[in-house]
Amino acid sequence: MDIAAEMRAMAQAARAASRRLAAAEGSARRQALLGLADLLGARAQALFAANARDVDAARARGLDQARLDRLAITEGVLGSMIQGCREVAAMSDPVGEIESMKKRPNGMLVGRMRVPLGVVAMIFESRPNALVDAAALCIKSGNAAILRGGSEAFHSLSALAATIHDALEAAGLPRECVQTPPTADRQAVTELLKLDEYIDVVIPRGGEGLIRAVVEQAKMPVLKHYKGVCHTFVDETADLARAVDIVLNAKAQRPGTCNALECLLVHRAVAGTFLPLVAERLGAAGVRFKCCPEALPLLAARCTTAEAAQDDDWGREFLSLTLAVKVVADLDEALEHIARFGSNHTEAILTESHKNAMRFTREADASMVAVNASTRLNDGGELGLGAEIGISTTKLHAYGPMGILELMSAKFVALGQGQIRQ
Amino acid sequence: MDIAAEMRAMAQAARAASRRLAAAEGSARRQALLGLADLLGARAQALFAANARDVDAARARGLDQARLDRLAITEGVLGSMIQGCREVAAMSDPVGEIESMKKRPNGMLVGRMRVPLGVVAMIFESRPNALVDAAALCIKSGNAAILRGGSEAFHSLSALAATIHDALEAAGLPRECVQTPPTADRQAVTELLKLDEYIDVVIPRGGEGLIRAVVEQAKMPVLKHYKGVCHTFVDETADLARAVDIVLNAKAQRPGTCNALECLLVHRAVAGTFLPLVAERLGAAGVRFKCCPEALPLLAARCTTAEAAQDDDWGREFLSLTLAVKVVADLDEALEHIARFGSNHTEAILTESHKNAMRFTREADASMVAVNASTRLNDGGELGLGAEIGISTTKLHAYGPMGILELMSAKFVALGQGQIRQ
């Protein structure tokens, strides 16, 4: 196979399909998503069988259990894919929507009409159901998609892609609206990243290595989702009983995610009261602590999993039940620590001081800043966007969870009655 | 001078200044702009003298009159700089603004707070007053700026930059909020474009060559302002008397601009009536026509400046009093022509058909789509954004004129009372 030629043909077909998808009625896009939900249900056994081939091969190659779990399409995973398609289908059609039209002094009405970006490429390492989630968001927003998943999920992704194609065609839309490279060869990615003539944006989802490689190679803009080094600052006025609930949730509810808590900052005035609570509650949940010298004795007195932090534990994304803990003098020191070690993902303050809450929301530089809430809430669903295609940690185009609207742009529409430039 | 080290130091200083500028009160940013307006007025003679050095040197080097005109800071140019600063100062402070906060089912309030992008670099070839316009927009939006103009304006830009520095310091803000490289050496640009660690976005303003060079070299995102190949389609139901006024304005009011009309598309049903009007009115204004075979006799019968178009006249940005003219069968052919030859800048339809107006606004792919209005109205001031820093012709981050809000991002703010992830 000439991979360069194949990828160019794929990108050209995506560009052509994107025009038809954007010009289609919203009812066709909606029908494609409802049809996809139905087909996924009807073909459950075939999808499980294709997935079993991937899982068996991965197990034979010795993939660890965590990765096998991610690879598996269970009844529950399939059910959430189907539900996701139905939820996205039910949203109002965003293509061609105009938020408001204002009248200029010359009488011309000026508004901004939402338009698709065009062709979106996503390179992902995560669960195979990311294919269906991303396809649903792209179809709804009128974008053609080229979706490239991990090679270990090749059969699962092929079976899901075939299902998406059938749903598109049943709704009168081109199957090229959603394409997956027909090869597990990595050269396919390299070639796609050259085709800025046809692909408008690329979204890498996965480890830092993948993201850096895509940024390095891509000729088109990249929406980056770097690591999540999330902090929570417990201020001296915090409600400490509530604070320990929030911190426990942020750290332990699902520690492997990018919005999980990695570093707890505690105001010196309450460290002596609060850290023993943390040692008990989080210690009981299996959390290990990497502590600054001041925090260490307070934690070590109540649990067996506290040890001194090393320099590189600050700013580290543990993605596990490990938590860095530091005592700080005040809000200033907390904000300085976050400015130095944060990753622009999620930062939280727990406080009863309105002044400190307002200052923190303004000065902490992150895609979500929370007051008296868990960092785990930085998620498209929790923030009201519906499904998300990733969380952008840079400020260009989108900052934070990316839903349907973040996959779109807006053009100016000017409705006149003969207006000219004076 | 070690230009690489100088530029790195400049970018680092910009990053530090951007934090102070963003954290400052809106009143300080406002005061800097009002102070700048006053200082520009007070130093008029010194600014004219610095500009005269550039103009004299450029004339001695044989620069053409059009470029000399662009280089000159006249009383009128200075007056509009001063007025621009006052207008931007008068706008409400966008930094930290939250458009709306919605309540989630769990009771948490979620909104989006406007935040600066950080450090904006602009590489420009245009008039020296672009320095003041860009500085004003960046200061207002809380962004530090590195502004690099053409070497022929070196003394003018240095004098303007010194004035900006004095205004910043008088308002208690760091002078490093706005910096200009202290050398005319082109290596300065090359070095700046490597510093994605400190510079968040680069905006090239100038000819296509400049823009392509910046896109090629820049490691940070580029907001591109490519050429403006703008079309106007005169539909069969157009009010032809009004249409000729609009077309005349679009082509001739200021033909050297990116939103000037470059290609007129005329529905066959009205070509015989409309093109003679065009020949008379635009011909009298000095317009030359490059015509398709069908349009040529209709124009040539009424003026002496009509000739057959060459293949490369379609999709060409003339930037002069030359207009390509093509007769088309219908709206479909007009939209096809625009899809093939347009540059995503500005497209207009002149029609009395509501159906065709709506279809055109939806299907023409451009940063502004106009109905019954001049393409020249695609401008930040005309569309209600206030001043603009450029017109983006790509869909990522901003599409169309970029004002203050387009120099900003928005982070999620979540105000809770103990919310956790379920």
Automatic annotation (TrEMBL), chains A, B:
Alphabetical UniProt keywords: Amino-acid biosynthesis, Cytoplasm, NADP, Oxidoreductase, Proline biosynthesis
Annotated ranges, domain Aldehyde dehydrogenase: 4-282
Involved pathway(s): Amino-acid biosynthesis; L-proline biosynthesis; L-glutamate 5-semialdehyde from L-glutamate: step 2/2
Catalytic function, reaction form: L-glutamate 5-semialdehyde + phosphate + NADP(+) = L-glutamyl 5-phosphate + NADPH + H(+)
Gene3D superfamilies (UniProt xref): Aldehyde Dehydrogenase, Chain A, domain 1, Aldehyde Dehydrogenase, Chain A, domain 2
Primary localization class, coarse: cytoplasm
Domain of life: Bacteria
Gene Ontology MF: a single term: NADP binding
GO biological process terms held by the UniProt record: L-proline biosynthetic process
GO cellular component terms listed in the entry, alphabetical order: cytoplasm
Matches recorded under Pfam families: Aldedh
Subcellular location: Cytoplasm
EC number(s) given by UniProt: 1.2.1.41
Enzyme class: oxidoreductase
PANTHER family reported in the protein's UniProt record: DELTA-1-PYRROLINE-5-CARBOXYLATE SYNTHASE, GLUTAMATE SEMIALDEHYDE DEHYDROGENASE
Family: Belongs to the gamma-glutamyl phosphate reductase family.
HAMAP family according to UniProt: ProA (MF_00412)
Physiological role: Catalyzes the NADPH-dependent reduction of L-glutamate 5-phosphate into L-glutamate 5-semialdehyde and phosphate. The product spontaneously undergoes cyclization to form 1-pyrroline-5-carboxylate.
Name of the protein in its database record: Gamma-glutamyl phosphate reductase
Gene field: proA
